[in-house]
User: Fold this.
Amino acid sequence: MKILVCVKQVPESDIIIQINEKGTWIQADSFNEFKMNRLDEFAVEEAMRLKESFDDVSVDILSVGPERSADVIKRAIGMGADNGIHLKTDIDAYLVPSWVAARIAEYAANRSYDLIFTGAMSEDHMNGQVGPMIAAHVNLPCATGVILQQLSFDNKTLYVEREIEGGGRDTLELKIPAVVTIQSGPNTPRYPSLSNLLRASKQELEIIDAGSFNRTHTGEKIYRLTYPMKSRAGEILTGSPQDKAKKLLKILRQKAFID
Amino acid sequence: MEQTIIVIAEHFEGQIKQVTYELIACAAKLQRFKTLAIRVMVLGDDVAKLAREIAQISGHDTLAIQVPSLHYYNGETYSDVLAHLLTEYKAAYICAAHTSQGLDFAPALAVALDADCITGVEDVVEKDGNICVARPLYGGKILAHHRTGAKTSILTIQPGVFKPLESGYHAPGAVEIKSIIYESRRSVSLGLKQAAADTSGIAEAKVIVAAGRGIGEAENLGIIEQLAQLFPRSAVAGSRIVCDMGWLEYKCQVGVTGATVTPELYIACGISGAVQHVSGMRSSGFIVAINTDPAAAIFQVSDICVVEDLKTFIPIFIEMYAKFKNNNQSEFKRP
Assistant:
């Protein structure tokens, strides 16, 4: 059985993000530290669990992005995956999900994967489109936001539970090959092991030129970035922590939340 | 045929979901920038009644698409049936809900129709003569205005952002019923497995103290509980990650996949303010946020912003309150 897991490198979340002067994208030096998208870690972990439960499972990791994206591919190999594929882009910019999905679908089309996993959404651009778009391109069934899956390899079916609003679960059975986007919660992603990280550092990734995004993309694009408007007063308390605590207490007392 | 905005209604267990009327409100805002007719579509095995209800309330023409196999939501059926039908309509925009359903079928439909797909839309605006849709990036720290390039744009609209229009007098829209036989070949929907967790505990609280990733470790829940204890009729809640980590039970989760709460006071401790969480608490009466990151998105929806580490700040606050109470009482006792 062959599994493809698509992972994305995203900036660390606890950073201050500055918009560039023209207001067209993020200031280049905003991002210094990167990590694997959290939901993609769950997707890698799901693949690793299938590898441990069934014989003869190989797990390929794929990422679309600039040079630095190789780090998350190596991390996933460190978690135990077999091979890494880097669809390298020539620019470090916002990549429209339909473009990313089309590139991945081109790669996956004739490689007979039984399962393709992605995280349900990336933390940075929050589109949630790549997984279901890959499925549409390669004509496979797809379930999104999956928190539980059970593979019946003999019947060639995958039972999945999708999380829906309010905490309920929508259940369905997919014929494999299939595409599944993973929500957080089904497992605890493992840390890379030292031996696997050593292997990852020596292993060559398959590097493929993803083509020029700027030249080929004609559809939707980001026009302007702004900082969101505050929807409330947003009074920022100032002073020492003690001053702030005093002010907060005064406000909560005035509003009669506390006596 | 005149260009249209197609609204895909969402329904659950025989009821139209509120978000359907929010989608219509979004479509009405798009009409301000471009002359387009609104047409609503509702899919299911028994939706004629729902279509009449939508046409009555909204005044827009509504198409009931009756698919006998569609007893439960099925993404494959939605995208295939809609792709087939929508080639007949010149849809400039297709509005679906940014929910577990809309986000499931919209991307595949976009591929089938060669349309743009923009998800998590919070507003539509005109910028320099272009129609743009606004959506959050980076957990809500940035708002991006996207311009569309295709003939058709599929938008998934964040629930709770557009206000449904006042339903003054208008003639009901026309209802058309279309029956389509379709069997999904590669996926079978088996229905709803479990009801949502019982979130009545936090839904009924007057004051909610909520913990996010910023609490760092489970042991720090203690100070969240201590803070909650200062308030009458209070409860402790958490963001998704705190529940995923097993630090709090899922019945304590606030957000899209948890409870939607409207307490009089909501204190968000170490919560970044991702839209999935905010949509479950933004209607709270008064919101206080404590976070070390001054750029955290939670501060945009807060009345009071405290840029501090909750692990040090909350104990200071509790101590100050205790001191204040003592002083007050001793003053009271003084002859």
In short: The first strand of chain B starts at residue 4 and ends at 8.
